[in-house]
Amino acid sequence: MDDHPSDVGFLSGPSAYVLYAKASRWIWAFVGTALVLMVLAAARVPQSLFNVFLALLFPSLVPWVAFVLWGSARTQSECTAGYTTLPRKFKELEQRDPYLGERIRDAGEEFIADEEFLSICSSSKALATRFGELG
Question: Mind listing the UniProt keywords for this protein, alphabetically (predicted)?
C-alpha cells in the first residue's frame, strides 16, 4: 500500500465497537432485572425475593459504566490513530473492521450499509475467535 493511513497499526485490545457492544449487553441485563423487580412488586411476592433482585439491579450497572467509559477512551484513541471501528460515525476517518482491523471504508466515503457492516462483523468475529485473537 502506498502510505495509506491504514498502514498505522490497529490498536491492541478490544475495539470501541466491541466495548460498546459489551456495554449494550449489560444494559439489557439491567433492564431485564428491573422488569423482574416490577413483576415481583406487582405480584406482591415476599420481600426477601424482591430484595435479592434489588441487590442484583445496581451491580449490573457497574460493568455497563466500565464498558462505556472504556469504549469512550478507546474511541478517542482510535480517532487519534486515524480510524474508527464505529458504524455511522466519523465519516472523515477510515473505518476498520472491529475484530481484525482491516480497512473496510476509506476516509470520506459513504458509510457502509448496516447489513453489510453486520455481515463483516459476523465473519471477522468468527475468524478472530477461531484464531484466538478474541478474548
Answer: Membrane, Transmembrane, Transmembrane helix
